Amino acid sequence: MPAGRHVAIIGAGAIGVISAIEALREGHRVTLIDPGEPGGEQAASYGNAGWLSSHSVIPPAEPGIWKKVPGYLMDPLGPLAIRWSYLPKALPWLVKYLLSGWTAARVETTAFALRDLLKDAPLLHRKLAEEAGVPELIERNGVMHVFPSRGNFDNDLGWRLRRKVGVQWLELNADEMRQREPELHPRYTFGVVVEEAGRCRDPGAYVAALANHAIASGAKHVRAKATGLKLNGGKLVAVITETGEIACDAAVIAAGARSRQLTASVGDPLPLETERGYHVVIENPESGPRSSMMASDAKMVVNWTNKGLRAAGTVEIAGLEAAPNWKRAEILRSHLLSMFPKLPKDIPASRIKSWFGHRPSMPDGRPCIGYARASRDIVYAFGHGHVGLVGSARTGRLVAQLLSGKAPEIPLAPFAPDRFL
């Protein structure tokens, strides 16, 4: 690949802005294209749980999950809900989703691939935060998983696979948990601490700082919505936006859940779906955890942020256009109050903030990172699902390596976009 290319990066979320930083480091000229404010409330990065969980290597679909699909359809407030009205459109994606986790061997393949992508992520993010002048936003102090019983942990395929791919952790009995987390509900009697993991104190502010760093380093930000790409004889010549064409000789599609239209425009109809997620934040809470944690029974991450105590999680399959179901955010709040009994039940509504957004997800839990079939001038970097923030640091490095024609630092075959084509 020629040096000093003009790279148009479509999407100014975590992956887009880090790709911009790394592409600039490689000597390329960069234009960021996004109609929104980097790190703004419209972005998936903004609403992220804030975990830098380098051990999040297990895809959402596991063996036997097909048995739960009827329940997902019947319960609009469960940890995974599917809206009936959207089912016909989502069905092809859901079939691929179920098949990807049909056997333990398939899940293991994904676990090894994601481990390569996520390993050392807290350290990579810390270095980026230091460059951007916000080192205080990244903390590398471990995260805790809590379980009602040891059996809930022992019977979990995910933890057996984490051990297999090299993740290590510290196990805690009930007394040890009480010493670390005295305000946690006593129904939790077993826990594990993954000490390699970390957290982001404010994902929105972090992405905004990274974008500012990219711009200060020479990137240009164009506020426009990209609608397609223009090729001439297999060579990229421009990104098409609603306000006109932007001439370039390379492009990165990192538009999150809205990447599907762009890949289809160059002949790659990829099965990208949105796993709609919610969070609630309690400002100035009277109680809470000392560390970041995930409750196995609630399928929910609880994390301290600069804006307050954030609870995030759940998946809703309902597409990009449907209105949010705010009862799902209320469920998160109820779980949070249940986990920490000292939190008052009558917290004023003015102190509770709810958010809703779109995770970009591929059926097998692995992102698309690689070249478009139509041209190696186009690099895909989207579909990270539940590991967008944590996976963005290495993904940005990989994007820059692909743009420069260098050997990628990890094997990219598991993330090849054409695995679904």
TrEMBL record:
It comes from the Bacteria. Residues 6-402 form the FAD dependent oxidoreductase domain. Keywords: Oxidoreductase. SUPFAM superfamilies: FAD-linked reductases, C-terminal domain, FAD/NAD(P)-binding domain. The keyword Oxidoreductase applies. Coiled coil: none annotated. PANTHER family: GLYCINE OXIDASE, SARCOSINE DEHYDROGENASE-RELATED. This is FAD-binding oxidoreductase. It comes from Bradyrhizobium diversitatis.
